[in-house]
Design the sequence.
């Protein structure tokens, strides 16, 4: 069906709500915007769906949310009455339309005879992961678009283990959702209200008790500033610090209440320095040791450390290395470091944390990008008990310390990060000093991420052509340094360039390319799974900070020049 026919179908639908109809009439006056809103169905991928809020089949709205929920309801129904009775746990963050989308989802499940548990107010993604496990629910849903701009929202799907769906289950769910032909025809007005249950303090208490088990040592004095960036984690984190016994925590009160407009930040993304602007003002007034910011759905955390002259924002790789050093040191000191301990990181995460783990005799294992693949390893371990999980993380500021949740958990990481800062402060160090010591011990690792936005139909086509071109004609060198190994996760092959041989990669298929250079540097190309972007990850290691910085800049310039001339 052509996009114009789709739009006319919506405009002519008798049951269309007044607000959507008015928005459509305005949209129809701009052919380019109208085409983008209707040229396809909003992609429901392996993690769910995410898009701009508004009318249209390619947008987040009550109709596309109903369609996704109906498809998942059909999927659950295929497993029979027990699965339907176990039901779906639903949480939502502070974004525009998040409560409405959560309610639409719950009503759609209930209309299909499936039990739905819905939180009364915004809760974090990791709490939803925990809740699925605690309630023995069959699935979980979180309405969130993470750190995207205010005009976005999303729909994330979780399996019964509390992790994002593995690829096999995700493909099945995608199939059921795609078979729902008419999002406008779904009626969720009539349902059994006894199938809806509102969640609140009981589950909050259970989750808080688990988070408190993350603590490794006694509470020491520390001065820190915390902000949830108008997201869902504020109340939870305040309670955690109070109950843990930290008295030196101050809060950016202007940002503590959930607000989907994110009025005081340019972007609610703790990876960006601007997200810390207000926290930095608070910190400078108090000379606080540490600034901490959590993203809107509470799964990613960023930190900035006072160095004596300014606040230095840590990268996700740096925070991961520091947390690993503190965690493993504490466990070793207490005689609790297991012989079969293992950490997990993604293929685009630095080797820095791996080097730290190796120094403690701890094995490190790589997985594909996305925390679902760490969750998949934990699910396998539930059955075969092959290792003791110690830590999982990714460069994009996501960490998991204890696996009562099966997705990255910024609340856990925040508590351990403050504990680590307090521990080292007692020794006369700040976290930046600890980082420098680790670099001097293991080498100066530096990483960079370049994200290029490619919106709309043409953007998607450009990304596809770029990856195809790199596969057809791979670079022989980058920044004058020879490419010695290429990993293609789509074909699941590892090519050793000098030897002209290939071997299988024992990881799931993914549209990702990674180049390893002769000097140990690497470059990875990956289309985003949640945004209209292509991402270039780059990493180097050298004997000094200056050398690694210079090497990284040359690598970045060279590779961007290569892709620009494709």
Sequence:
């Amino acid at each position: 069906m052509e996009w114009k026919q789709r739009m006319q179908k919506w405009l002519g639908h008798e049951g269309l709500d007044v607000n959507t109809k008015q928005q459509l009439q305005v949209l129809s006056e701009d052919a380019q915007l109208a085409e983008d809103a209707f040229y396809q169905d909003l992609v429901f991928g392996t993690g769910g769906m995410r898009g701009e809020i508004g009318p249209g089949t390619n947008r987040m709205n009550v109709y596309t949310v109903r369609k996704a929920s109906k498809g998942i309801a059909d999927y659950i129904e295929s497993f029979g009455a027990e699965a339907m009775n176990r039901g779906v746990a639903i949480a939502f963050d502070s974004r525009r339309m998040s409560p409405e989308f959560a309610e639409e989802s719950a009503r759609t499940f209930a209309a299909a005879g499936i039990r739905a548990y819905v939180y009364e107010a915004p809760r974090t993604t990791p709490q939803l992961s925990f809740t699925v496990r605690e309630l023995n629910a069959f699935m979980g849903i979180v309405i969130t678009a993470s750190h995207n701009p205010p005009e976005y929202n999303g729909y994330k799907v979780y399996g019964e283990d509390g992790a994002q769906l593995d690829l096999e289950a995700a493909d099945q769910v995608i199939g059921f959702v795609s078979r729902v032909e008419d999002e406008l025809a779904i009626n969720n007005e009539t349902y059994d209200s006894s199938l809806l249950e509102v969640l609140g303090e009981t589950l909050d208490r259970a989750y808080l008790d688990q988070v408190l088990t993350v603590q490794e040592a006694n509470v020491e004095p520390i001065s820190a500033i915390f902000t949830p960036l108008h997201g869902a984690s504020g109340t939870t984190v305040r309670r955690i610090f109070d109950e843990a016994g930290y008295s030196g925590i101050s809060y950016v009160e202007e940002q503590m209440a959930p607000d989907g407009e994110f009025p005081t930040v340019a972007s609610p993304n703790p990876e960006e320095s601007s997200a810390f602007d207000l926290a930095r003002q608070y910190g400078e007034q108090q000379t606080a040791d540490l600034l901490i910011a959590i993203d809107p759905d509470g799964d990613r955390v960023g930190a900035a450390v006072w160095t004596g002259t300014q606040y230095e924002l840590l990268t996700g790789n740096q925070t991961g290395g520091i947390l690993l050093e503190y965690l493993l040191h504490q466990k070793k000191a207490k005689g609790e470091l297991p012989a079969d301990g293992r950490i997990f990181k993604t293929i685009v995460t630095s080797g820095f944390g791996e080097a730290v783990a190796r120094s403690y005799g701890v094995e490190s294992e790589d997985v594909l990008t996305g925390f679902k693949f760490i969750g998949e390893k934990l699910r396998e371990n539930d059955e075969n008990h092959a290792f003791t999980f110690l830590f999982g993380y990714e460069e994009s500021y996501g960490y998991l310390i204890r696996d009562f949740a099966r997705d990255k958990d910024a609340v856990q990481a925040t508590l351990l990060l403050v504990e680590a800062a307090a521990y080292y402060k007692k020794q006369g160090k700040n976290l930046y000093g600890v980082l420098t010591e680790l670099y001097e011990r293991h080498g100066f690792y530096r990483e960079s991420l370049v994200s290029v936005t490619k919106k709309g139909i043409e953007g998607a086509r450009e990304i596809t052509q770029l990856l195809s071109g790199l596969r057809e004609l791979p670079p022989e060198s980058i920044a004058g340094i020879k490419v010695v190994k290429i990993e293609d996760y789509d074909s699941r092959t590892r090519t050793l360039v000098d030897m002209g041989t290939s071997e299988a990669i024992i990881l799931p298929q993914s549209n990702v390319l990674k180049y390893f250079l002769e000097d140990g540097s690497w470059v990875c190309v990956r289309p985003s799974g949640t945004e209209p972007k292509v991402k270039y990850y780059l990493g180097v290691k050298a004997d000094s900070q200056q050398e690694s910085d210079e090497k990284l800049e040359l690598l970045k310039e060279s590779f961007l020049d290569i892709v620009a001339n494709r």
